[in-house]
Amino acid sequence: MKVFKFGGASVKDAAGVENVRRIVAQETEPLVIVVSAMGKTTNAFERGVNASWEGRPDEAVLEYDKIRAFHYVVADQLGLSDLFDSSITSQDIVNGAVMPDNYDEFYDQVVCMGELISSKILSAYLTKCGIANELLYMPQLLITDKTFREAKVDYEESRERIRNRIFGSTSKVFVAQGFIGGTIEGYHTTLGREGSDYTAALLANFLDAESVTIWKDVPGILNADPRIVDDTVLIPELSYREAVELAYSGAQVIHPKSIRPVENKKIPLYVKPFNDPTSSGSVICETDRKVDVPVYIWRKNQLLITMRAKDFSFILEESLSHIFDIIKRHRLKVSLIQSSAVTISVCVDKTRYVTDAIRELGDAYAVTYNENLSLLTIRGTTPEILKREQAGRSIMLTQTTRRTARLVIKEEMPE
Ligand code: ASP
Ligand code: MG
Q: Residue 112: nearest ligand to its CA?
């Protein structure tokens, strides 16, 4: 059994779906295909959800109409024009929606549609092309708690359901939604943005798969983002440990949560280009090989929050646990920590909860913050590299260890 994952960029249009078909057709072994929402569909659903939530239903209808039109075109181009029921309008959906009083819960019930639609299209297209397959319904297989938008997976329950479902079937090819799961009570949940990699890794773990392949729009794992740096190099092989470090620093190529499930069972994880399927790409596996080029990782949309004790006294241990309790409750993601005699600074991702967290921190500390920052992590740095990267930039903070430098920079990175 192998697990293949295709992200939004690989299935951004009809040609992408056809390319998936071509890659899948080469396989002779049993296969689980995990698919993300097509293109930028998740962002579009987010805009729709926000519009509804903020009381602009007409804007939500417009967003949903665009999403529908986009998918109808793709389905049509693939010869699947009867796949969707067009008698229900976006207006019906927006008007009929029962809005829960929790934004995150509402978000998950709507946003999961992106993966439900893309998987339905892919499964139907494979069938039409003679590749027999079964469409899985992950909300009833990947069981989670009710932490909406960041649901925690119940490993035991999910493992049992998924194994029963797949090993209980005679099919050889399965199509599954990435990113989404469900609670025992039947709510839809999502695992956090870009979570489809995590789904693929979990399925591989549960099924004792021989490998996972993440098909991407890059040649493999590169030492820098090719949209920012011109001369990037491919890293052919890296250890699970190295991969976790890169992913947590913000490397976009793979979701941080996806390493542990494969590491636990020593399953190799390949990252390959979907437009060149025979190239070897990169592999994350059990290896002693060290990455021998400097690696540049950008984490965008950062905020640097600095807390100073109001009465000038600062007891680090006590303040740390208090501050981190607030950070955890507001689900902030910390990317860097720095302390001095009287201050603690944390760099966090900008999320919708940041303002509330800052307000609460402000009750106990004098808080200042800067936004629109980027965090650049350089692994395998040298003094020369550091100097070059610092030159001409407005740097808020630099943290260095022997081989790693981290710069908080006043600069926004391209999307
Ligand atoms: N569609 C989801 C997102 O865009 C999950 C994924 O792509 O992995 O975040
Ligand atoms: Mg995606």
A: 1
Bridging pattern class, strands 295-309 and 269-273: unpaired
Gyration radius (Cα) of the chain, Å: 23
With a 6 A CB cut-off, is 40 part of the ligand 1 pocket?
Answer: no
Question: For residue range 315-337, what is the model confidence (pLDDT) as tens digits?
Answer: 677 888 899 999 999 999 999 99
Note the pLDDT tens digit of each residue in 241-286: 999 988 888 777 889 899 999 999 999 999 999 999 999 999 999 9
- Provide the percentage of residues in the chain whose pLDDT is more than 70: 99
Distance CA 150, CA 328 (A): 13
Nearest atom (ligand 1) to Cα of 197: 8
> Is a pLDDT exceeding 80 seen at residue 381?
yes
8 lines ligand 1 (CB under 6 A): yes
Mean pLDDT to the nearest integer, 186-214: 97
Structure-derived torsion over alpha carbons of residues 250, 110, 20, 214, reported in degrees to the nearest 10: 20
Residue 72 in tokens: 């109808």
Per the CB < 8 A criterion, the answer to whether 335 and 374 are in contact is no
- 34-67: burial string, b at 16+ Cβ within 10 Å, e else: bbbbbbebbebbbbbbbbbeeeebebbbbbbeeb
Which long-range contacts does 334-340 make (Cβ < 8 Å, 24+ apart)? 335/249, 335/250, 335/299, 335/302, 335/375, 336/375, 336/397, 336/399, 336/406, 336/408, 338/397, 338/399
Rama region for 28: left / alpha / beta (φ>0; ψ in -120 to 50; rest): alpha
- Residues contacting residue 203 through CB under 8 Å, at least 6 positions apart: 3, 32, 34, 162, 176, 209
The CA 162 to ligand 1 mean position distance, Å, reads: 21
Q: Whose CA is nearest to atom 5 of ligand 1?
A: 194
d(CA 366, CA 187): 41
H helical segments located in 152-297? 155-167, 196-207, 240-249, 259-264
Hey, what are 90's tokens?
Answer: 């976006």
- Angle, CA 301 vertex, CA 298 and CA 306 arms, to 5°: 105
